[in-house]
Design goal:
alpha/beta; D-Maltodextrin-Binding Protein, domain 2; 3 domains; Arc Repressor Mutant, subunit A; 12 strands; five-stranded mixed beta sheet
Amino acid sequence: MQLRECEYILAIAQEGNMSKAAQRLYVSQPTLSKMLTKLEESIGMPLFERQSTGMVPTAAGTVYIEGARRMLELNAQWEQEINAASGNHPSLDIGIPMVRLDVVVFYVLPRLTKRFPGLQTHSAHTPQSKLVVDLINNKCALGLGIITEKYSHILNCEPVGEEEYVLTVPKGHPLEKKAQSMAGCRYPHVSVTHLKDTPFVISRPDAFSARVTQRFFSDHDITPPIAVRMQNTGNIVKAVAGGAGVALLPSQPLSAMGLADKLTYLHVDVHEPPMQIGVLYRRGYTLSPIEKAFIATMCEAYRAY
């Protein structure tokens, strides 16, 4: 039983579909099918039944899947114990979507380095869509992202805070003066009527935030001018702070990013539910003291604003 086979079999079991499992693993479907066929031939019995509803584990498949899960968990634990016994510097290995990188860099890491001198950090730019794949394939120990129902069935998820889509404007912007307090709103509310001629900064068309923005325009029948399109949310934040326009963005903690004196959040009628943000990691993975401290400090960052 090889680790790669374990990862592939678990993906098939969790997705119940060869095509979806292949997409999640970033391999072609023929490659995944060939691996499964070869494995079943070596075992001498099928691991899945191909039903109209999807891939259903056989009795042998259920045993194999449980063994694969334990094997991956033991491998992760073994790696942790080896690192601890080697006397290496404390380390943190985390996949972070660019949109949340500033919270980690400007708030979390400075506090952790004071508690853990010599801390070695490896942070990879991991898009939200790849977090599960990178975690299961041991490309990172932790992931910071949105907790979805799908993720909660596959990974351990430690909530650290909540975000909602808000109108982000430069400090002192005319819209800030027009906004008013409203019951049930965390931020001052501004009417959509004030946005018709307000330049917006938005992301590339296929980005989630860009789709949210376009739905907002459509829901309220407005077509504000587009000042500029940026490749990622981090650049959008900088553009708004520099006065290029306003943007609909997740409400990350401004104080934790060092932007409380440059940006303001305003509430508008965006028909998007709040997003629960959390630290994600593999089932069976044992958190180190520094990883527990990372989670606690992320919670502190979201409480700070």
